[in-house]
Amino acid sequence: MSQSLCTVRKNPSNAERSGLGVGPHPLGVQVRLLDKRQYILYNTAVMVEADPRNDKVGLEKRTLVSQVYDYLRDCIVNLSLKPGDRIDVKGLAQELSVSQTPIREAIHKLVEQGLVEPKPYVGYFVARLSRRDIQELFDLRKSLETLALRYVYENVDEEKLKELLKRLDDLEQHGFPVKDTQKFDEDFHLGFLIKGSGNRWLEKFANGVIDLIKLTTRLSMNPKAACEEHRTILEALLHHDISTGTKALESHLERAKRDSIEPW
């Protein structure tokens, strides 16, 4: 990492507060997102020093761990950190202007989720997905998403369907830009299907592997094919044809699985 990813400050200037995206964090932290890999975190020590109750220190620590975790998770899911990359704990601590403790705690959470692999006496590495891992994740996605589709169909929102179809029209008109198509893909699979199912147990189960699911959507990005397949699914729902919609979703995920496995 050649440039500072994060600076910590107690007193942002008025210029920074206006027009530069600074906003209040629910826990009292001021955060400004510079780009995908840069954050300014305004030190919560101000809160701690102003309040004599020392239990705020624990709150500050948890907040910092969460911020580091979110940053690393986004880097992995968006492939800024690629499978097999070593995570430099000391370097991250220097770049983010924090101690190594919250870095390690955040990494341990990522290990539990399967996004990072520890190697004794060597360090931490972004997990490499094997062919079997990818196959099994897509098979899991198929089970979860076809079930979610049935729930969505039972309470179909035609206005939402038309809104998503309009977004597909816009993507087609602009030549299926990869970044925008990725955003639609995530909104469709995780928002419209999983969250839109209204089944809290299905959503809770999916949340356990949601970052790995997001990673598979990045591995299989074929913008034109994805948009055409999404359109088929949405139009089937609009015409109240759950059978065609389910077959189209299964076919879509099978194609995405083949595209993801092919480089291996």
Gist?
Helix content is 62%, strand content 10%. It is α+β, with helices and mostly antiparallel strands.
Explain this structure to me?
The protein is an alpha+beta fold. The chain folds into two domains: 6-126, Orthogonal Bundle (Arc Repressor Mutant, subunit A); 131-261, Four Helix Bundle (Hemerythrin (Met), subunit A) (Up-down Bundle), CATH 1.20.120. 62% of the residues lie in helices and 10% in strands. It is built from twelve helices and seven strands. It has helices spanning 14-17, 45-50, 56-77, 89-95, 100-113, 131-154, 158-173, 178-194, 200-207, 210-219, 223-238, 242-261; strands at 6-9, 23-24, 30-35, 38-42, 86-87, 116-119, 123-126. The strands form two sheets. It has a four-stranded mixed sheet, with no helix packed on it. A hairpin with a 2-residue loop joins strand 3 and strand 4 (38-42). Helix 7 runs antiparallel to helix 11 (223-238). It starts with 5 loop residues before the first strand and ends with a helix. The model is unreliable at 1-59 (pLDDT under 50).
